[in-house]
Write a structure and sequence with these properties.
This protein has 131 residues and is mainly α. The protein has one domain. The chain is 79% helix and 6% strand. The chain is built from five helices and two strands; from the N terminus they run H-H-E-E-H-H-H. The protein has a two-stranded antiparallel ribbon. The relative contact order is 0.20.
């Protein structure tokens, strides 16, 4: 396959990952049972001072989720732009980033998220052979 197609497949995979992550970020407070509801309540209601402001774990969790949406969207757009004019070092960097993301997602989150990143990373790194 040509680099353009591989990078566009990778971009689409990351965009799908972004959509799924966005849905999860926007609905994480919807508890499936009472035990989870209690954890969410604790995350929201226990505040502590952090760098001059009152913070909660829920705020950090939600903020990290929103930040990750932006990162994934950026990577998707970057892959699409690179597909038009691949720059080998940038393609390699994004590929390594996606493989690293795969490891983190597999260890700390769940296999479906890791599968999206792994597929995108594999396509990106495979594109290096044709650049």
């Amino acid at each position: 396959m040509k680099a353009k197609l591989l990078l566009r497949i990778a971009a689409a995979m990351v965009l799908l990952h972004t959509i799924g992550h966005t849905m999860g970020t926007l609905t994480w407070k919807q508890a499936p049972n009472n035990a989870v509801a209690q954890v969410i309540s604790g995350m929201q209601n226990n505040h502590f001072d952090f760098m001059g402001r009152s913070s909660s774990l829920a705020g950090f969790y939600e903020g990290f989720g929103m930040s990750m949406i932006l990162v994934l969207l950026f990577v998707s757009i970057l892959l699409w732009l690179l597909s038009a004019a691949p720059v080998k070092p940038l393609v390699a960097l994004v590929g390594v980033f996606l493989v690293g993301l795969t490891v983190v997602e597999y260890i700390y989150f769940f296999p479906v998220a890791a599968a999206f990143s792994l597929t995108a990373g594999a396509c990106t790194l495979a594109a290096l052979k044709t650049v």
